[in-house]
Amino acid sequence: MVLNDRKIKILEAIINDYIETAEPIGSRTIAKKYDLGISSATIRNEMSDLEDMGFIIQPHASAGRIPSDKGYRLYVDRLMRRRELTEEEARFLRRVIASNINQIDYMMQETARAIALLTNYATIVSEPTVKKTRIRHIQFVPVDERSFAMVLVTDSKVVKNHIIYMDNTPDEETLQKLSKLVNDNLRDYSFEDIDAEAVSRLAASAGENKDAVMAVLHAVVNVIQAEDDVQIYTSGVKNILSFPEFSDVGKAKAMFQALEEKDMLITLLGKNHSEKIQVVIGAENNLALLEDCSVIKANYNVGGQNFGSIGVIGPKRMDYSQAVSVLSGILKHINAVIKALSGG
Amino acid sequence: MVLNDRKIKILEAIINDYIETAEPIGSRTIAKKYDLGISSATIRNEMSDLEDMGFIIQPHASAGRIPSDKGYRLYVDRLMRRRELTEEEARFLRRVIASNINQIDYMMQETARAIALLTNYATIVSEPTVKKTRIRHIQFVPVDERSFAMVLVTDSKVVKNHIIYMDNTPDEETLQKLSKLVNDNLRDYSFEDIDAEAVSRLAASAGENKDAVMAVLHAVVNVIQAEDDVQIYTSGVKNILSFPEFSDVGKAKAMFQALEEKDMLITLLGKNHSEKIQVVIGAENNLALLEDCSVIKANYNVGGQNFGSIGVIGPKRMDYSQAVSVLSGILKHINAVIKALSGG
DNA sequence: GTTAGCACTCAATAAAAGTGAGTGCTAACA
DNA sequence: TGTTAGCACTCACTTTTATTGAGTGCTAAC
Predict the structure, then answer these.
(1) Which of A85, B11, B25, B117 is the Cys-Cys partner for A329 at CB 3.0 to 4.6 Å?
(2) Domain co-membership, B238 together with B113
(3) Which are the contacts of B213, defined by CB distance < 8 A and separation ≥ 6?
(4) Residue B279, CA distances (Å) to B15, B292, B315, B324 in order
């Protein structure tokens, strides 16, 4: 059986209609609503074929048809038209990015919020943590007798602070000297590179402050080691309450719970270096809990090996075209901004 | 009509039962379930009285009774028994606090999460921002040509950073000098105190760096002025999906939306200096959207004039006893920790 | 190959009947 | 005089039954 032009037109009508209404659609409705120039009986025959070919499904005997995962896949790969962002949407996204331009981590959170707002789906952002990023500047700041703060500026200009707790915290002056020493010696290192050997090498060149250097650096290394590999933020999770797919509170709750599982979200966003926008439909994500959801995701660049991901998650019956457009629209901006930041 | 002992026992039974089951309760059920030594007919008479007195309500003619706001109020003020935290709960809370002891703001977020976990209600935390807190230490850290970070340690040892964007960012060395200058002169100031006059006074004593000082301080003042008065965090909002009161997705969604409105949350937490735990029942909060919810809240101390609030919000039919116990239990710990921190 | 016609299916909706937890009132009892 | 058994009544909720309508597949004619 061959997927001729007419079958494709019918399939497209089914998918578009289902995305819009969330109701199974039948042959007569298609004949009336979409001007295909053929009768409902003919459409019926074609739909029967489409079902045999696996592109659509009948939820029960006397119902209309809905798209199958395979149907969505065809739609996303071949049928869907990307649209440009409206001027208004583009302006909104530009503003969000521009007003957070100095803090990439914060910018990503705000971006997630913006995407959730524009698409009405839930948005997930992963942000690589400092382990792999290179040190641009480190400053130790005194807090009290038992602790000080390490302020870290990475090469991608993320600013983070970590509180470090030590029994014998060096005094302000010593901390200042240590800041300088560490800065002079470890600039452009990544935290991964700071192993025991690097620590002792640095301590050797520290002269009178050797002990303090050792202690501080060990504390620093401990703090960094203890940190998770990636941070995950979500935004707009409450949007799922708007979809008839989740009109059952039990299902909605399960979904909320799933979207709080960090491990699951990490799996969901996956780990690859693709620069393209990826669409994962239904069971393709291999997560039983989310088999009725689709994910549209993309990686953004944080310099070299490091990248984070942004994903939009919604019901399978989501507006792929819109989500892809928004995501690709924003990605262009972000990558440009990040490049400008780390280049400039 | 007098609220005698028997009426109180019956009211207590009604409230306890309703808190547990969320179903209206009738005279026969009370007679069977609670061993009050009187017949259902007698209970019926008493219930009729309780309804006349406004303590209970009949949702419709042939239903049982449920507590009114006035009934809950009586319960909370006179009937409810506070319980001690179990050893396990106490240990859990202590651990949460202890492991975040160095960052009060972070600690409060984690505390909110912990309370939400223990109570299964949504938790709201407000955190006073830096405007009123006193400066313990300030450090300027270079980021790039057009920006630097201001790291701020307050007298309550909250560490925060703000990115400051300036066309002519001073170089590293100058920033270091400025840090020292500002530290020496503005320690124990609050940001509110840094007005134009203070800025120029400081600039006068800056010698060669006068222009840079002016520029940086103006930028700092701008950043601080732009900041909101309080920050609000919520945790466990998804818990509301567990209550039959919100089994309708529309209601749940409205609630989610309400709990994202910062202004509403600020109003909800109110502003007072009470050191007691406060219970706000139903319409008492004067927020139409939340008239079916109750709030249990308390203030925690962040040194002197500054305080934040923690609130637990749930359906009116919430387990007041548990929520009050958990909140008072944790408050003791927190205030002790904060006192130790700023004292030591 | 296309389509009108028809019998059939079945979820969803509506209407009808039945159930049961609840009430208020009355009259008898201690 | 307070307590209680008894009874008729109410009304949300559940179950049952009937109705509707959007959908299908198949067949025969164009």
Answers:
(1) A85
(2) yes
(3) B178, B181, B199, B202, B203, B206
(4) 16, 14, 13, 8
Nearest to B144 among A103, A157, A257 (CB): A157
Of B147, B246, B344, the CB nearest to A102: B147
Contact at CB, B149 and A153, closer than 8 angstroms? yes
Percent above pLDDT 70 for chain B: 96
Contacts of A161 in chain B (CB under 8 A): 151, 159, 161
Q: Are residues A75 and A93 in the same domain?
A: no
CA distances (Å), A75 to each of A15, A27, A179, B3, in order? 8, 19, 56, 70
Check if the beta carbon of residue A311 is closer than 8 Å to that of residue A297.
yes
Q: Which residue, B226, B258, B277, sits at the end of a domain?
A: B226
Q: Is strand D less than 7 A from the beta carbon of A58?
A: yes
CATH number at residue B215: 3.30.390
Q: Are residues B110 and B63 in the same domain?
A: no
Angstrom distance (rounded) from CA B7 to CA A337: 70
- pLDDT for the residue A2: 86
Higher pLDDT, B57 or B334: B57
Is the CB of A236 within 7 Å of strand D?
no
Q: Are residues B202 and B234 in the same domain?
A: no
Instruction: Say yes or no: Cβ of B27 under 7 A from any atom of strand C.
Output: yes
Residue B247: list chain A partners with CB under 8 A.
249
Q: Measuring from the CA of residue B60 to each C1', which nucleotide is nearest?
A: D11
Confidence category of residue A324, pLDDT binned at 50, 70, 90:
very high
Domain containing residue A241: CATH number: 3.30.450.40
- Say how far apart CA A282 and CA A21 lie, in whole Å: 19
Q: What is the CATH number of the domain that holds A14?
A: 1.10.10.10
Q: Indicate if B173 and B321 belong to the same structural domain.
A: no
Rounded Cα distance between A123 and A240, Å, is 11
Segment A78-132, tens digit of pLDDT = 999 888 899 999 999 999 988 777 677 788 889 999 999 999 999 999 987 767 7
Q: Determine whether the interchain pair B344/A137 forms a contact, defined as Cβ–Cβ distance below 8 Å.
A: no
Give nearest nucleotide to B39 (CA–C1').
D4
Q: For residue A240, what are the domain limits?
A: 87-128+229-343
* Beta carbons of A143 and B102 less than 8 Å apart: yes
**Do B235 and B337 fall within a single domain?**
yes
Q: Which of A122 and A158 is assigned the larger pLDDT?
A: A122
Q: Which of B123, B127, B128, B188 is nearest to B153 (CA)?
A: B188
In angstroms, the CA B133 to CA B303 distance is 8
Chosen domain end from A185, A205, A226? A226
Rounded (to 5) percent helix, strand, coil in chain A: 55, 20, 30
Shared domain check, A195 and A234: no
Q: Closest approach of chain B CAs to the CA of A21, in angstroms?
A: 18
How far is the CA of A242 from the CAs of A19, A295, B251, B264, in angstroms?
A: 14, 17, 11, 22
Looking at residue B207, what DSSP letter applies? Answer: G
Task: Please report the pLDDT score of residue A301 as a whole number.
Answer: 79
- Asked if B247's CB is within 8 angstroms of A241's CB, the reply is no
B256 vs A1 pLDDT, higher one: B256
* Distance of residue A31 Cα from the nearest chain B Cα, in angstroms: 34
Distance from CA of A251 to the nearest CA of B (A): 10
Number of domains in chain A: 3
CA distance A238 to chain B (A): 7
Together in a domain, A204 and A337: no
Q: Which residue is nearest to nucleotide C8 (CA to C1')?
A: A62
Question: Which of B102, B252, B257 lies closest to A147 in CB terms?
Answer: B102
More confident residue, B132 or A166: A166
- This prediction has a pTM of 0.87
